[in-house]
Amino acid sequence: MRKSVLMAMSLLFLTSSLLVAVCPAQVESTEIIRLKGANSMVNMCDRIGREFTKSSGVRVIVAGGGTAAGFDAYCDKACDIVMASRKMNSKENQQVSVCGAKVQEVLVSHEPVAIVVNRANPVRELTFDQVSRLLSGEYKKWTQVGGADNPVVVVTSEGHTGTTTFVREQILGESFFSSDAVVKNLYFEILKEIDRKPGAIGYAGLTDAQFGVGKGLVKIVALKKDEQSPALIPSLQTVEEKDYPLLQPLYFYWPGDSARKSVKSFVTFFLERVGKR
Q: What are the DSSP calls for the chain, one per residue?
């Protein structure tokens, strides 16, 4: 009996020793790829990143904060890839040059930007001109575009973000967002705010907008370039055919040829996956 107990204890000690010896090595050998930047790219990059982790074992960590925050992290060597919903500007170009980082631009996708409203809003389609007048605050009531007698509530992300800059340039032109606009940091917060206010209008990338629709938070309205154009709902088909009038280019900024092997593999994997969407 005593001999059996001693043998069992010895086996337990040996097993524990092997676990102690193996587990730390496994933890230390786990490679990580970090992406930071455009909030509008977070969901897509996180989804494809998890697919890459399953196939490669390399962990992918995705964080938002905006395109500018992505370049800050890149210069601080806190991320491997910047997710950008606009092209790098002159300030960021100088920033990267000063910190001595190598950077290469890759166009990874064109993402439709959806115009979203409260689910109870009866309006089904809008022209660029109508959206401009709504977002700028010129139109105060939804009755001005054939809707219910509700005040217009504009919900936006912060002005420096890539998607907000894109919407302003493509739709507002020389105008600005309403001075009474409700500003939220994350697109999920924008969608929740629109759900709370019957007269709310905002925008989001297709991935986030479809998530909001699936959660019952918002409704996507069809968009027309002008009165003569067809009203189109953003979809993968309208992206492929480039019919939808509000397509935003999305970029990766990364070291390119000087990147780690795993980072190169991830970028290749990502481009392949996006191409198959």
A: -HHHHHHHHHHHHHHHHHHHHHHHHHHHH--EEEEEE-GGGHHHHHHHHHHHHHHH--EEEEE-S-HHHHHHHHHTT--SEEEESS---HHHHHHHHHHT---EEEEEEEEEEEEEE-TT----EEEHHHHHHHHHTS--BGGGGT--S-B-EEEEE-TTSHHHHHHIIIIITT----TT-EEESSHHHHHHHHHH-TTEEEEEEHHHHHHHHHTTS-EEEEEESSTTSPPB---HHHHHTT-SS-EEEEEEEE-GGGS-HHHHHHHHHHHHHHHT-
